[in-house]
């Protein structure tokens, strides 16, 4: 019993000594259970140290540090810092109620409404500044932009579910330690987190985007024609091979940044994905294994991609020779000019810059991965092969992500098929060469038409 408290815990040792003295003086008292006594002593310390939800969350983060992935810990820390402590940090954890959580999520939704309004206002001022005629007008609008809050991302329902899950996990830890008895986060109900659907940039959507500047969905996919235009535009970029590989094979951002040269087998046209570069803070880059077993995979390459990568490695060797002893040997296929790692955040910014310069409708860097899947599906590749190439853990995930894209591909294939049948009624009506919907056949992606043919 006396071994339960630490030598430095004088108060704890006094408690145990008093307990043992009480047992010794009473013939009817039983010797206390060792584990229960240990738990009671730990609970006393927890109750002594924790007076607010903020203190509980700080202690929980401290316990998690080093026991989970750095990226997961960083996400917990952001949720605690940005949402949980500002809204709930002052409350006694024993008194935390479901109503407190309802109030927090209501305030988050109200903040979201404000963010959407200010983002729209900022976008309007930007559009007016682009069309301003005089220097004075442009200056006045620039001053308005400075006075407005910067663009911010709303805390959408999916993020709110993660916030709730983090709080629930933290409270469960302390329920297990008998510091508290009720988990309010386990009893609050949030609306379903609707995943944004992947949509293809059709001519109609492009026209609407050019008119309003708004994307129809956060997740947008280029058609094969638009993909070709982008790759042609970046053909002279020193990282062309990176964009080519991601667009055709669908590697994730961290995976392509951390791809080891040793994992590239150009002779047999394949590569192994087993490493990624991650970061919790901008300056804190580190390598990590993929998050799931499915993420570790072998990816087959086509002949053209093999040729592109071979040319890239030759240029990399020339850069290495030019830098000499100053070259940083990270062992990666894609690096900065001095051999250092490519920062995933920098890669996103560079891609966005190139998309703007190209004049193409916007997509995120991660959407290149969706483009790769769309091209494979349009080419008739079995969805199981697509799943394994992308590193999804199940076929269902692949279908769920691309359920909104597949019907458009199916319609395009149907239209292409219809062009192969020269019906007399079409010739008489003067519609030969047009689809049944009245759209010229040459507006279909050539890749789809060729596949059907």
Explain this structure to me?
The protein has helices spanning 10-25, 34-49, 53-64, 70-88, 98-130, 135-147, 157-176, 203-212, 224-233, 240-249, 253-257, 303-323, 344-358, 367-378, 383-390, 395-402, 406-418, 424-428, 446-452; strands at 199-200, 220-221, 264-265, 270-273, 276-279, 285-288, 297-300. The protein contains 19 helices and 7 strands. It has a 3-stranded antiparallel sheet. A two-stranded parallel ribbon has the order 1-2. It has 453 residues and is mainly alpha-helical. The radius of gyration is 30 Å and the shape is globular. Residues 431-453 have low confidence and may be disordered. 56% of the residues lie in helices and 5% in strands. The longest helix is centred in the first third of the chain and has 33 residues, at 98-130.
